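A reminder before we start the practical. When you read a complex entry, don't treat the lines as separate problems. The point of joint prediction is that each chain is placed relative to the others, so the output describes one connected object in space. Small molecules and nucleic acid strands, if listed, are placed in the same frame. In the example below there are two entries. Take a minute to note the order of the lines before looking further.
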Amino acid sequence: MKRTLICELPSSLNTEVRVCGFVDTIRAMKRNQFVVLRDHTGKVQLYIDAHGKPELASIVGNLTQESTIEAVGTAISNQSVKLGGLEVAVSELKVVSTAKPELPICKDSTLDVRLDWRYLDLRQPEKLLIFKIQTVAEQAMREFWTKNGFLEIHSPKLMATASESGSELFHLPYFGGTAYLSQSPQFYKQMAMNAGFDRVFEIGPVFRANPSFTSRHDTEFTSVDCEISWIDSFADVMAFEENWVNFFMSQIKEKLGSSIEELYGKQVIVPSVPFPRITIKEAKKIIRATGYKSEKDDDLEPEEERLLSGYVKETYDHDWVFVTDYPVTARPFYHMRNPQDQTLTCSFDLLYKGLEVTSGAQREHRYDVLKAQILEKQVSNKDPKLLESLEHYLRFFEYGTVPHGGYGFGLTRMIMKLLDLSNVREVTYLYRGPKRLTP
Amino acid sequence: MKRTLICELPSSLNTEVRVCGFVDTIRAMKRNQFVVLRDHTGKVQLYIDAHGKPELASIVGNLTQESTIEAVGTAISNQSVKLGGLEVAVSELKVVSTAKPELPICKDSTLDVRLDWRYLDLRQPEKLLIFKIQTVAEQAMREFWTKNGFLEIHSPKLMATASESGSELFHLPYFGGTAYLSQSPQFYKQMAMNAGFDRVFEIGPVFRANPSFTSRHDTEFTSVDCEISWIDSFADVMAFEENWVNFFMSQIKEKLGSSIEELYGKQVIVPSVPFPRITIKEAKKIIRATGYKSEKDDDLEPEEERLLSGYVKETYDHDWVFVTDYPVTARPFYHMRNPQDQTLTCSFDLLYKGLEVTSGAQREHRYDVLKAQILEKQVSNKDPKLLESLEHYLRFFEYGTVPHGGYGFGLTRMIMKLLDLSNVREVTYLYRGPKRLTP
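Here is the predicted structure of the whole assembly.
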């Protein structure tokens, strides 16, 4: 007999149904027993006539919470039932698996204990919703990209040299040599540009041997990246990104807005386009005016990101803001420099509710300029082998190159902020940090 | 001025256009010069009136092949031009970057040299087409999944223990301990089932420290995986997969069939559903009848896969075949066993044109049976710590479990066979093998 999902029951009233799922709660009395069954689409009350069906009653008597069961019965309307005004009057009941009696976690367990038992933690509907949001967001991102002529690539995660900086790099033995784990698909997105792919995207893992335990860092995360050829300036990249954000946010609102409101009490706000744009120089002025003293001249500290987003929300009623024109000292060697002011790069960050979720730029595509910028970095970083380690990368620019730019986007950071959660660990399927490699 | 893509030129005749791309070929004569320009959508002839526009002629005189240029001019119909019966009469020409004069590869360079200069190798339209196919295939796969209620997950690639077998495993120093690189998302797909995700998919990298140099192996590849809850048997998984294959193949044919025919001379065949199904026992009989002597009792050698697919093509005119009911000895411990014959597993492989592209099964979800199968493997593999290393995995089955099954699918293997290419290296963006970590 075909399974009926719990969300389908309202349209199956007065017919025989088969429902499958986890035992959410059990309430057993002498004459009547009630089991709330949960699947990925909702919860439903099962009604068991303990007096009339003693064989079912003995099954329910031995049930434990979170066990899995299949029940066959009739879906009936019952306005006194809180769960959707209906219940299933059970005629057959099968226990598929019996959970051990005492659950190792409860709602107020610490985050660390919940992560130990992540699969049980994820059974809560509001946790499952995070991954429904992720699915809708990613599918919308890809739909927008493919409609705009982007190709999907899968760049290698095993590399012979560092991708961006030598720090925070995992290395491993590799057939008698050493391999490094990719920190970013940056170089390989750029390779695609010079291979004539025109526009590419990639959603995949990146790795950072970052020893810190902040709420926004992990040693492995899903990076969302794209790169665009034949741009005139980094303004083209920002214009693309804001429309892309607008599209996936509107898809999240349309498909899951009511669930997000129900389970998190939050309205999804589809951001209007264009997003506000502020140069880092202006941003620093705005932040100084709040009285905050920064230790950084060329970049924003986390507290400054929050202050700036607060200002933008108040002034423009907007959750998103582009911060532009970062100084050369704050950006990697491959960012193009402003032809009018060589101390600045053609770059931007995107903040969402006080957190950086994107770093983007126009890249330097001219071989000689790029090589000079690498040599400059080699001197300033006192890294005598930098040019050598970038030999293969620099080759991508020898035989015809195209102007290009792109951005990287933090998926878990965005979802964390969308739901106003306080830690990326809550929105990552299985978080990895310096002290966590399990489960 | 807005860029016109080369594929858009037929609808832009007699208007001024701006085209951007790579210099494919140069033919310069005294009075007339011709440059074939290439972008990701096609090629077009640029006509330069060398006599009337000497300043343009001198630019063309210094051009090298594969340099990038922008040209402004008028698109005009010219039936004598082989490339689409049109050309662009150039009025402005700008060199964006000049390629070094002698290209390091040509069409008949060895595969290894071509991989050294992969970005130049990929500039050939038939190489670019591979990634257009990949993009369409993956987007179709995901569309079919999401329509059928699947959620997308990103499982960790850094693990504390081996995912499937201890062999071919990369390991790395991890904050004073050791981490392993994931060989498969298998355990984490199964975790999702017991977390109540119902159905999940993942497309992402996996890593195998495989020292072999065959045409179908690499140390890193893109694995396409899914898992389905509440199945009745592995037949449900096969039924899902064949409809999924049918859908993405029909999308490839619809969107890229004519390009594939033009550049590879191949017809895309959308496979009819259901696919043929043959038990491994029957398959062995069929292969023996050809006179081939196998060294394996419980599995198919590569040559046997080819022979069996040949038989299926001849008998059923079908490129795809499910081989089912593999013996326990050929399958991992987590495969469910046939209740009628405990020497067999509830498993299948899917062959496409003589190559295994999928391995799938119903998984064992009953804690006690699963634990017994691990202990049995521990004895047969003489691996006294197997149960211990699977402690976290086994925990996924302690608090309520659901019947489930799924499959893994080899993306590059499928594309290789679709185009009748001979090596996965040709269809991988950047191949990784024991001797290759660059570019």
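Discuss with your neighbour: The radius of gyration of chain B is 27 Å. What might explain this?
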